[in-house]
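This part of the workshop introduces the protein records we will be handling. To make this concrete, we reproduce a full record directly below.
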Amino acid sequence: MDAIGLSGAEWFAVLRIGLGLWWLESWRHKDKKEWFERGTGIAWAVDVAEKHRWNVVRGGFDVVVKPRPRTMAYVVVYAELALGLGLVAGFLTPVALVGGLLLNLLYFTLMIHDWAEQGQNAMMALISVVALFALSWQSWSLDAALGLF
């Protein structure tokens, strides 16, 4: 593979790190006090889910998320932090890429009517797939340094 400036594996590491920074920004901009104390993030998601046109989304949300708003707030916020840190550091990278892909697909499905969010979720999911199949942890990662994967 020919590439300019860096090797192909290094460019895929750049892509992985960029995705990790995107997850970290998603975590950083959340008002944690509002999410954890007032439950604003999950309350917004409840409102979105209640209006969803697909019964499976409404039903699944009612069973999994709605009864546990505080727990789910922590799950969402700290999942984004863990994904960001894992991808930037290149630690357990395949796990982080698959986890991020699944989270983006959940976000995409829940917010199917919110076109402003769909581009972000689609692009993050695409980057996850590319970074996974390109084995983006081959360069600049703790996984490579530790001989994992």
Observations:
- The helical segments are 8-28, 32-38, 40-50, 55-64, 69-89, 93-110, 115-133, 142-146.
- The longest helix spans residues 8-28.
- The chain has a mean pLDDT of 95.
